[in-house]
Batch of 2 targets.
Target 1
Amino acid sequence: MKLYSANMPAPNPRRVRIFAAEKGIVLPETMLSLVDREHKAADHLRRNSLGQVPVLELDDGTTICETIAICRYIEELHPDPPLFGSSATERAVIDMWTRRIDIQLGEPTKMFWRHAHPATAALIEQHKVFGESNRSVLTRAMQWLDTELADGRTFLIGDRFTIADIAALTVIDFATLIGLDPVADNPAVTAWHARVSSRPSASS
Ligand SMILES: N[C@@H](CCC(=O)N[C@@H](CS)C(=O)NCC(=O)O)C(=O)O
């Protein structure tokens, strides 16, 4: 099994690295240079026709794309600790939170990155006014998250660290890196962020 991946700041490969670290496993990784467009080269397009990372390649040649699908596969092989939940209710609530994070936080971050950030200007036709408008969308989403976390829970779903925390941490760190300010003025988010960032897996 091998993970085709990319270094920080790429948030999706980082999700898989954090997930594997929480499971206590080491995935052999082949790093592609996104700057050199190695993810768009013919050999990688054969692994993932969308030209994205991460991709998990199994020993029989099967390729699994999409971060959450890769993490679910790892969870099947290494059930402990359960990061997708261990009952029907837990699994549904964790799925709900992971979707909420990707839609509410991930979408505006991605749209700002694509349409307003100088690093992507040469790659796609940018619509800067739209891109910039995502700053306030993310600010509102972070205020919403802060009110959710203000009830004193340790992690997004109570007292158990899950894939939803990994999803949120990687989006928030990426958003910070590209010049957004998602944590500021949100005390409950700040405390949660410090807690999840202090886990050894977060340095992955
Ligand atoms: N939905 C995919 C998104 C993967 C993705 O966007 N990866 C980024 C790196 S973090 C990438 O490969 N971007 C290049 C591109 O989309 O062309 C997943 O969850 O794995």
Target 2
Amino acid sequence: MAAVATSEPALAEPPTAKAPAPRLFEPGGTTLEDLVLGVWDELVAEGRAECPVCGGWIAPSAGCESCGAELS
Ligand SMILES: [Zn+2]
């Protein structure tokens, strides 16, 4: 009785790239919360602020005049 070698290769775990999920902001840097708080501060102090989404101007009551983003 001859030993039969199976041709099935050992299934090694495929090397998956553990790339981190894309982040809007770098960890340790400016967080979204920091950004929004900064925009709020600017809105209160100056009556308008730069939109973090499109770079347009945000009015306190109307939101961004360019893209319509609102801080809430
Ligand atoms: Zn905008």
